[in-house]
Amino acid sequence: MSLRPAWLTFRRYAAATTGMTLTLFALGVYTAATGSGLACQAQWPLCSDQLIPAMTINPDFIEWFHRVWAMVTGFLIIGVAGWSWIDSLDRRTRIAATLAVAILPVQIAVGAITVTIGGLVPGGYTVSTHAAHLIVALCIFTLLGLTTVWGGDRPASARLLRVALGVAVAGILASAVFSRAVPLLTYSPGGQAAFYIAGLSAHLGLVATLVVATEAKEGAVSGVDASTARTVRRLAASSMGTLVVTLLLGRDLVLYTVAWQRANLVALALALALAASAAWVLRGADATTGRSTPVGGD
């Protein structure tokens, strides 16, 4: 007899873990943007010689809370991998979940270096450790997204493909509101966190799009022909590549001059145009195959 409640499926657990990781990403950005990562006097895992700092909103607490959230999320990620093997899920799901756990120690080590060795460098974090921390986190997030999409009982469908593209387009549009490339709002610490929540949601939508489009290309998804799936996959992959550029430029990895701002704006516009084109191609294919319900009849 299983002690697990019936509503707690592997896909829901993996999705919740992916959501925790997205939140961790935003917390990390907020922590870095406020300078709180350097508040613990270059100590890890202690914070200003304390295991638990004062529970008030101050730089020490922000950094400590980020570390606690990271620890809980790390255990959840390990749980995803363990569950995938215990339930003998398909090979690709187990591989994605296991790889997420395999590179988790790298992320922990880079994070520790960022606030110790990197934090001792005058002027803040070093670009190299900051970039590595961001890239490894994005890899873990992507692997968890793949695990979530692959690890369910329900097969991929045309509806899932449409929803995934909708999330991608909406996420890119939302990220543009907070992006430093579009001077609508001040690129404050809170705005930076919001930018990454929206951008990573779009990234996750594109990951799901690539998975479903690949299966549709192989004939495993009804309602989507191979030609349409191939086009959608290419457009989504290109959109993902340009979106990742905007995510990298959202951090202080380069001297953000006017030229870099224009490059960022072009990448953001391309990501949106490519994702919207993929949605348009899919919509056109739906209309051609007569998936819309006729008026006044069956």
Automatic annotation (TrEMBL):
GO terms of molecular function: metal ion binding; oxidoreductase activity
Pfam families xrefs: COX15-CtaA
Any single Gene Ontology cellular-component annotation: membrane
Record-linked InterPro entries: COX15/CtaA_fam, COX15/CtaA_HemeA_synthase
Cellular compartments annotated: Membrane
Signal peptide, first to last residue: none
The keyword Membrane appears for this protein: yes
Membrane topology: Multi-pass membrane protein
GO biological process, one term: heme A biosynthetic process
TM helices/strands, residue ranges: 21-44, 64-86, 98-125, 131-151, 163-182, 194-214, 235-259, 265-282
Domain of life according to the entry: Archaea
Protein name in UniProt: Cytochrome c oxidase assembly protein subunit 15
Lineage: Archaea, Methanobacteriati, Methanobacteriota, Stenosarchaea group, Halobacteria
